[in-house]
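Duplicate of earlier report; Transketolase input re-posted below.
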Amino acid sequence: MGAVSASSADQKATRDGYGDALHELGAGRSDIVVLDADLSGSTKTNKFAKAFPDRFFNVGVAEQNLVGHAAGLALSGYVPFASSFAMFLSGRAWEVVRNSVVYPFLNVKLVASHGGITVGEDGASHQCIEDFATMRAIPEMVVICPSDYNETKQIIHAIADYKGPVYVRVGRPNLPLIERENYKFEIGKAEVMREGKDVLIIANGVLVNEAMIAVKELEAEGIQATLLNMATIKPIDKEAILKYAKLCGAVVTCEEHNVIGGLGSAVSEFLSEEHPVRVLKLGMKDSFGKSGTWSGLLDYFGLRSKNIVELAKKAVQSK
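Output:
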């Protein structure tokens, strides 16, 4: 399987993919409703609001009410998409998400924008790096983090058809579109972007593009890497992880999240029981973010392709 490449000429934010997909869904389905907590310009739900004002609800700065209203609409037969910043939707409203949405297994879609340190200048208070952990710890919750604009659109359409609660994190920065052929997102299925025998790299979100660059750099040094885009953190694709962990014998995980509780933890938890191999984790090293440009923060915290290359080499040497 050949390597995929990123297009630097065309860049869009994953939050824009969310807004555009919502607009498409609204035009075709009268059961789609959208709720926001006074942040529709930032979450990109404003496009839906303008086109379908009778199916859009701004609850104000009240995230618990946002989730509670979404639960009520789900009980009334609608398919609600509720949005705010990741810090507020996964943090401030967590108890309502757990008890009012997931415990009764309601058909509510929680789409959180501004996740991770690429929120940038807003600083650590708004840079949510714990949401994968808090959301995937809730029983029966689906947790997803797309890699680019196009995958985000596919994800939003897919979760609209899925019956049950879902949490999706989208981001603020414009990212390169990933060139793909015949890719179709499926909940719980990894995208095999490249196959190699030396090291398995598993990434999601903004780190997928960085991992793609790293795979090319490793190849130039004679190291063949398998790259999985693990957009679905829960349920995680155990079959793909096991297959390539056995083939490669060493694993590197890459995420814009704390190394505790996120993608790396999910991979480690599974492999420790099924096929123990060394798993090295790239992510936030149990530290808060800082205020700065999103690109500068990726550099500062070591979430770049060169850091993936370093970990991959270390993983290969440890076999």
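The two ends are 24 Å apart (CA to CA).

Merging into the original ticket.
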